[in-house]
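Provenance and format

Records in this collection were gathered into a single text stream. Each protein contributes a sequence line and a token line. The two records reproduced below are adjacent in the stream.
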Amino acid sequence: MEIRRATTPAELLAAEHLYDGPAREEWAARFLAAPGHLMLIAYAEDGFPAGMVSGIEMLHPDKGVEMCLYELSVDEGYRRRGIGRALTEALAAEARARGCYDLWVGVDTDNEAALRTYRSAGARDESAFAMLTWEFDVKDR
């Protein structure tokens, strides 16, 4: 298993089976061009994208820079092999190297697999919180 940072839209498109929906080339290019956005992809021995984690740097005037673990996904055929933990640890290492003061992730409290993965990678429970969402009608979504 090799974990590499994605640097081309083609790499992001090849990993679209790991996303919630289909990837778009223009969104992949925009993601890569956005400062502070990164995706790490875990490749199986045959080059198959077996898992991915995406992170976004967030900057605030009184806090500095932190990293949000935006999404983690492992292909069903590769689960329970430590890939999710390895990807999470790789993102944490990248956040430290970038000078981030922390790495955080929002997780549904009933998502036991995700909770186990993040805890095994060193995360600790800080508190329960509610996530509220505003949905907007976006053309071409």
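Adjacent record:
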Amino acid sequence: MAIATISPVTGEVLKSFDELTPEELEDKLARAAAAAASYRLTRVEQRASWLNQAADNLEKDADSVSTLITTEMGKTYRAAQEEVAKCVRGLRFYAANGPEFLQNLPGDANTVGAKETYVTYQPIGVVLAVMPWNLPLWQAMRFAAPALTAGNVGVLKHASNVPQTALYMEQLFREAGFPDDVFQTLLISSRRVEQVLRDDRIAAATLTGSEPAGRSMATITGDVIKRMVLELGGSDPFIVMPSTDLERATDVAVKARTLNNGQSCINGKRFFVHADIYDAFLDKFVAKMGALVVGDPMDAATDVGPLATESGRADVEAYVEDAVGKGAKALVGGKRLDRPGWFYPPTVLTGITPEMNMYHEEVFGPVAQVFSVGSLAEALEQANAHPYGLGSNLWSQDPAERELFIRDVQSGMAFINGNTTSYPEIPFGGVKRSGYGRELSDLGMREFMNAKTVWIGADVGA
């Protein structure tokens, strides 16, 4: 894919960028390594001050950055504003809490025969981030903010269709006062990621992306023995039980399936509804999905904009055509819109069976699969019979059902009576083929730190 901003609304190439030459890439990696040697020695309080300045600058740039995000990947301007606000919150969270997260962890010196023992957390160096386009600022920020707080240096290989957002991030950190080269954007194609990852100056990597990309990068990091965090998406279950408020549950179900124009890894995609309320849920859900306005993402009246790429829409189209061709029923939507751009309408499908491709895979667009189940146990069995395990969602007022869900759902996150989302304050990540490792919170920061054990014996002759 060319490195370019291509309008999802019209398909027009708005701005193209040259890929880094081998010499330019080498220069950037050399400068990152040099920056890591000195930046690790800066005081965490100073890093926090720079993070707060970055938050202030981003807040001032909110309108222009939101417009840029919408232009590059097609989410509604309103959603882009929310993404920018989340990034500001993330920067301020690590500025406020980073110093505490980096405090030494005392140990029991007497038990291990020491005068003193503790764990100290130290940065590991240059971290490579390979990031996707669907949340172009937030996905990269939730790597950058904790990494820079920890004293690491970041190099970002962003998706090729959001180059201007990637370059803005480099500018943001530099103008906030961070030393030159502490955060750099690498405008390179995916085929050159392996070269960077194998470079001895890269200490670790993080990827949010597809399962094939994760498998490839995990193979490389395993070969060169480097730490890695993987977030590979999901097809999250959204379970609705009779005790819930159907109006609220269907409102959130619509949001879950159309947030970010349906291109969100952690929102519900497979809806398991108890048979006692299945018809009522489906009536409300279909009506609300069908009432959404699809259109120009800069228009305040628009609920759902275009998909980010032409190939992405083709993938969604293929999944739906395969399912309908094998007996599924589209209750609303189900066919691309006859207009310029990469639009696809909100779609609700029933009658999904294991013979259909979407049953086993992630559909990255505003397409919902709805199933009728006789019990929570049945819902969990079907939910867990899937290779992914990122987020999960239960709607129930029954304490016993909640406890069963928390205990048995195979996912990295379990949300009850609220939409699955990410917060700087709590860990984010999955299990099974959704990846491993955690982002955000103190856990996300420590993924790329050396937890160094210190043991100090009694002074000789004391």
